[in-house]
């Protein structure tokens, strides 16, 4: 189903300049939203392309702005949302070389067909090269995208070697698409993702953070981590987590799970392409797990820590609640040590220690020296000192956990109930992020299936 703001933009452009001789501007949906609609999935967003020039789009809508210098598009503000509108004329000038020179023009191709065909050849993957006319309800497919959807395949439009050298960000987009849809790569595409993996270091850190956030914040983090590991990208982007996989004997095509993957799997259950989280949540989970991996803790310490995070730093309340937990924790995780009979003060001290370790882990994740040492013990591992977490995000993640060490926050009201406010979560509102963090930790340490198994015995 097409979102209402997008439908309004389509209708306005379609009517613009319409006379008895002219049906108005041509308007289509393009890219991933068409693929998702065919798969009956909720698109992350909708991209519109039109025969109108961008300056005509600017005149048509009262609140509209052109963004981007190299590849300009219009951001149309409609019903508190932004709809991206591109023009066929602008897209025709996007690439220095004309990729249509490498392909034979389809037989019986009229002028409109030719414009659509040229545009589809400039897309990254065939399943993103579909063009949908929402009025005639026709999907135009010039690259074999529909067949690749049927085969659950991710394949580049032009040869993969050329495609990834042309735009190395396509490597990360391909991982994200395959993870989100559960698709596999064509043999050629998979080969060059692996062989050209280091080319992603040409991207600036802001772009890398954006691409990684698309992977981890929209409900497909576990699958994304597995694919990044499989294709040798994890040790470049997240070397601490790659070192954890290596240390635990996790093979490239391993079907098993571990605590890191379980944390992100439980996060995925709460998110969706149209219900993402703020990047501070997944960065916080990475730091939390790194602290546990470096020094395993007793399950009640982890429980009390997450409760203290949730309630704004009231450790006394968190410890009292944790001591009442009788549920069995997941003993398969090496990060969780055997349960002991800790008194309240010892448990409190252990929670404070964990909070300090999480902050230390976060610091290491944002320091080039420590990042470069992450995989020193593995001779065949590639060298990476990439730090893409900016200072602002680092400080925002620190705020999630600092209450545990500094004591209860004044006027902080813990969230009641289990319903998630997804708008607040996407904006990184502290109460919501802490609430979701605590849920993820509890679902991982005390999985419901263990309770069910205990009841079945």
Instruction: Determine the number of helices (DSSP H or I, runs of at least 4 residues).
Output: 23
Oligomer: single chain
Query: Can you give the helix content as a percent range?
Result: 40-55%
Q: Low-confidence parts lasting 5 or more residues at pLDDT below 50?
A: 453-457
Radius of gyration from the alpha-carbon trace, in angstroms: 25 Å
Shape designation: globular
Mean pLDDT: 91
Structural class: alpha/beta
**How many strand units?**
11
Strand order of the largest sheet: 3-4-5-2-1-6-7
Count up the domains: 3
Main sheet makeup = 7 strands, mixed
Straight-line N-to-C gap: 46 Å
Determine the strand fraction and express it as a percent band.
Answer: 5-15%
Protein name: Poly(A) polymerase I
Domain tRNA nucleotidyltransferase/poly(A) polymerase RNA and SrmB- binding: 182-243
Domain Poly A polymerase head: 27-155
Pfam families: PolyA_pol, PolyA_pol_RNAbd
List keywords for this structure.
11 strands, 457 residues, two-stranded parallel ribbon, single chain, alpha/beta, Beta Polymerase, domain 2, 3 domains, 9% strand, nucleotidyltransferase activity
In terms of topology, how is this protein built?
Blueprint: H1 4-15, E1 27-30, H2 32-38, E2 47-50, H3 54-60, E3 64-67, E4 73-78, E5 81-87, H4 88-91, H5 111-121, E6 131-133, E7 138-140, H6 145-150, E8 153-154, H7 160-166, H8 169-181, E9 184-185, H9 187-195, H10 205-216, H11 221-230, H12 234-237, H13 239-247, H14 259-268, H15 279-294, E10 297-298, H16 299-310, H17 315-322, E11 336-337, H18 344-365, H19 368-373, H20 391-406, H21 422-427, H22 430-445, H23 448-456
Parallel strand pairs: 2-5, 8-9, 10-11
Antiparallel strand pairs: 1-2, 1-6, 3-4, 4-5, 6-7
Protein name: Poly(A) polymerase I
Keywords: Nucleotide-binding, RNA-binding, Transferase
Domain Poly A polymerase head: 27-155
